[in-house]
């Protein structure tokens, strides 16, 4: 086994992985925001969910990554367990498109695709052409890397030592399934794992039947990887992962029990069935098939497709049953105190900026809703001071601080990824938004502190002062609500004039309240302590308004 062959195989694997990544980035950029809108509108229709899961796997060129993202959606409460199972089953079918593409093994196409991709990336000024260049460059690297990988593995597969070890390791069909699962778990991409299995089978390193078993085992590796995604996750996310593992395990066991029939089905739908027969695969488990690499690749790709179709047809109608069963067999969520940690952010998708920014938007929206809830809870304390509400507002403030830190760190990491111009502009906007939301929280906490001092010092405001504070709070909550709605993605051009009008109203109220306040102090209707506290509350409201207006203004400047 010469070292040059091993070096060629490893280099080919590296080019193959780079090609898959580049092609995936090109697809994501070409799709733009359209697929994000589809993800955010997953319905309870199991067939629509499976279709969206297929699209997600095609976009990412990996059902492993897609599965982790789906678990993240469940963890964040974006989709239900029922919806998630449909999407997860669909990801396997979507990944088959990438596998079928890999099976073409068109080296003749590789070099023109690489050349076209480089030319488009180097000389085209249109953004869409740049993305198409990524797609072509990635496709060319995939084909070229596969050829190098197979050529490097051929001498390794011919080694007597390697053949002896291979025969011993693959003596039991279940070991092939387990190796396929482990390979997928280690590589963290079933598309890449399939490419490696195709190369191993085409080079003679493993026989055809074991190659099919390894393809079947990939689903276990994908399902097992989702378990790692549920560490520190919600009970719903853990239930989803456990059910996905259960479904995958059932699909693998049923396939192994009917393995000869499964192989016959693969041969039946594949070209040149006279070259690779079902009898040869089933009876000569140690035989190396002398067939063209492209033919072996197509059979293995078809095995991948048939297995996933079988899984969807069998288990998609049963996801309602699995969902209901999990409610009795696995623990559910328990209501309790507010959890300050992020719900939407998943650091595993940093390398997928489109999805990472979608998560950051959702987390920022959640942060804004928390700030708005804080404001409403605090305003209720003017009428009746409640220590329970004070405790709740303090928890919400802690949540704002944690979200401010984590969203900012998340966005900084996303900014270090390759981004188009639109997303590069959006990241500073989101960072500025979370900064303003955190400052709004500080302003609300200042009001809470003043109200606590008012309660503890037994300070009373006059009826006129309370009426003025009510008017000020109404104007402030209006602009804060507008800011949170604006952060949610509204594009109404009239929002900024409305916000400016509300800000001007708050400024006029501030001046009026200060004048009236001084007159009440001169007339002896207000104590000095009450006057100082009253003035501090007015200033806090003004700062909250300024930060809310800044959120709306920065959003308008981007649009």
Overview of the structural elements:
With 559 residues, the protein is mostly helical. The chain has two domains: 327 residues, no CATH class; 199 residues, Phosphate transport system protein phou homolog 2, domain 2 (Methane Monooxygenase Hydroxylase, Chain G, domain 1, Up-down Bundle). It is 79% helix and 0% strand. The chain is built from 22 helices and no strands. The radius of gyration is 30 Å and the shape is elongated. About 4% of the residues have low confidence.
Q: Which terms would index this structure?
A:
single chain; mainly alpha; Methane Monooxygenase Hydroxylase, Chain G, domain 1; 22 helices; elongated
Layout of strands and helices, then pairs:
Blueprint: H1 3-31, H2 34-39, H3 46-60, H4 63-76, H5 81-102, H6 107-123, H7 127-157, H8 160-169, H9 173-187, H10 190-202, H11 208-229, H12 235-257, H13 259-268, H14 278-283, H15 293-315, H16 319-329, H17 353-380, H18 387-415, H19 421-456, H20 463-487, H21 495-522, H22 528-558
Helix pairs in contact: 1-7, 1-10, 3-4, 3-5, 4-5, 4-11, 4-12, 5-10, 5-12, 5-15, 6-7, 7-10, 9-10, 9-11, 10-11, 10-15, 11-12, 11-15, 12-15, 13-15, 17-18, 17-19, 17-20, 18-19, 19-22, 20-21, 20-22, 21-22
């Amino acid at each position: 086994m010469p070292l040059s062959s091993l070096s060629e195989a490893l280099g080919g694997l590296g080019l193959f992985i780079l090609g898959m990544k580049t092609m995936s980035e090109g697809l994501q950029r070409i799709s733009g925001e359209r697929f994000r809108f589809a993800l955010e509108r997953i319905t309870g229709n199991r067939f629509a969910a499976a279709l969206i899961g297929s699209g997600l796997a095609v976009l990412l060129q990996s059902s492993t990554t897609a599965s982790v993202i789906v678990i993240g959606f469940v963890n964040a409460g974006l989709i239900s367990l029922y919806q998630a199972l449909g999407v997860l089953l669909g990801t396997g079918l979507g990944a088959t498109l990438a596998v079928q593409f890999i099976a073409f093994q068109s080296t003749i196409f590789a070099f023109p695709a690489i050349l076209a991709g480089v030319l488009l990336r180097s000389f085209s000024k249109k953004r869409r052409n740049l993305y198409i260049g990524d797609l072509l460059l990635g496709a060319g690297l995939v084909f070229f890397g596969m050829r190098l990988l197979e050529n490097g593995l051929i001498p390794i597969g011919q080694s007597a030592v390697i053949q002896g070890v291979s025969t011993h390791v693959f003596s039991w069909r279940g070991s092939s399934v387990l190796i396929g699962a482990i390979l997928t778990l280690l590589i963290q991409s079933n598309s890449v794992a399939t490419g490696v299995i195709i190369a191993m089978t085409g080079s003679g390193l493993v026989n055809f039947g074991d190659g099919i078993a390894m393809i079947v085992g990939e689903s276990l590796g994908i399902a097992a990887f989702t378990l790692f995604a549920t560490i520190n996750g919600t009970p719903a996310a853990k239930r989803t992962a456990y059910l996905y593992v259960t479904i995958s395990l059932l699909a693998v066991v049923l396939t192994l029990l009917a393995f000869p029939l499964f192989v016959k089905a693969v041969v039946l739908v594949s070209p040149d069935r006279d070259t690779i027969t079902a009898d040869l695969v089933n009876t000569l488990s140690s035989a190396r098939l002398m067939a063209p690499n492209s033919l072996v690749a197509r059979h293995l790709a078809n095995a991948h497709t048939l297995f996933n179709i079988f899984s969807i047809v069998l288990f998609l109608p049963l996801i309602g049953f699995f969902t209901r069963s999990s409610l009795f067999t696995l623990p559910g969520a328990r209501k309790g105190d507010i959890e300050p940690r992020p719900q939407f952010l998943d650091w595993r998708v940093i390398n997928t900026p489109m999805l990472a920014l979608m998560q950051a938007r959702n987390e920022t929206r959640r942060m804004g809703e928390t700030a708005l809830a804080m404001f409403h809870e605090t305003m209720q304390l003017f009428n009746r001071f409640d220590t329970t509400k004070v405790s709740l507002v303090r928890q919400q403030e802690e949540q704002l601080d944690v979200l401010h830190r984590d969203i900012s760190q998340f966005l900084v990491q996303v900014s270090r990824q390759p981004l188009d111009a639109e997303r590069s502009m959006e990241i500073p906007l989101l960072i500025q938004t979370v900064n303003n939301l955190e400052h709004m929280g500080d302003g609300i906490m200042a009001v809470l502190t003043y109200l606590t001092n008012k309660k503890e010092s037994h300070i009373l405001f006059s009826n006129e002062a309370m009426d003025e504070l009510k008017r000020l709070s109404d104007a402030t909550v209006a602009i804060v609500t507008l800011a949170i709605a604006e952060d949610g993605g509204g594009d109404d051009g009239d929002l900024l004039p409305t916000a400016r009008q509300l800000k001007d109203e708050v400024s006029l109220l501030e001046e009026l309240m200060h004048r009236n306040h001084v007159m009440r102090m001169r007339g002896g209707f207000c104590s000095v302590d009450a006057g100082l506290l009253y003035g501090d509350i007015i200033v806090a409201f003004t700062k909250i308004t300024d930060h809310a207006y800044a959120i709306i203004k920065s959003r308008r400047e981007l649009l």
